[in-house]
Design goal:
This is Cupin domain-containing protein. InterPro entries: RmlC-like_jellyroll (IPR014710), RmlC_Cupin_sf (IPR011051). The chain has a single domain (about 5-140), classed as Jelly Rolls (Sandwich). By secondary structure, it is mainly beta. A 6-stranded mixed beta sheet has the order 2-1-10-7-12-5, with no helix packed on it. It has one helix spanning about 5-10; strands spanning about 15-20, 25-35, 40, 50, 60-65, 70-75, 80-85, 90-95, 100, 105-110, 125-130, 135-140. The protein is about 5% helix and about 45% strand. A hairpin with a 4-residue loop joins strand 8 (about 90-95) and strand 9 (about 100).
């Protein structure tokens, strides 16, 4: 008999970017990882690694940003998971950090409640390249927290 934990491999660590606001109201991006995985089966399927988030209400929104699209300084409408389905985009936080993401990359946007500084509030974002960027967001109906990586 095959040990299912051997078959599943080591416990995963899945990276994501977290756009958050510090105590001074400035947005930053921090590299985090989902690590709270448990190996369990769903029905008759082989066991799989699952990292279950806290239960809450959510709204799923799909967006398509045209080629050359730029979203000037703004805050995310709610704490939300943002998953790139196709195309590429960039995100710049108030501290000047800029990341780029493509298909399969995801982040958690939690920059609500920023303090405007030098005309900056929240983040800027825009498309990269010659194709639109298609995103799926899962907006959580929860209050934002002011610390990075609190979802891990």
């Amino acid at each position: 008999m095959i040990d299912q934990s051997d078959k599943a491999g080591p416990k995963p660590s899945v990276p994501y970017w977290h756009l958050y606001v510090d105590a001074n109201g400035v947005s930053h991006q921090w590299r985090c990882a989902l690590t709270d995985y448990e190996l369990k089966a769903v029905g008759a399927a082989d066991p799989q690694w699952s990292d279950k988030m806290d239960r809450s209400e959510a709204t799923v929104v799909f967006t398509v940003q045209p080629v050359g699209w730029v979203g000037d300084w703004h805050e995310n409408p709610a704490p939300q998971w943002i998953i790139v389905l196709s195309g590429r985009w960039w995100i710049e936080s108030m501290d000047g950090a800029r990341i780029e993401q493509g298909p399969g990359d995801f982040s958690f946007g939690e920059d609500q409640g920023c303090t405007e500084t030098d005309g900056k509030k929240g983040h800027r974002s825009g498309t990269i390249g010659d194709e639109p960027c298609c995103l799926m967001t899962v907006q959580l109906h929860v209050d934002p927290k002011r610390r990075p990586c609190h979802l891990t």
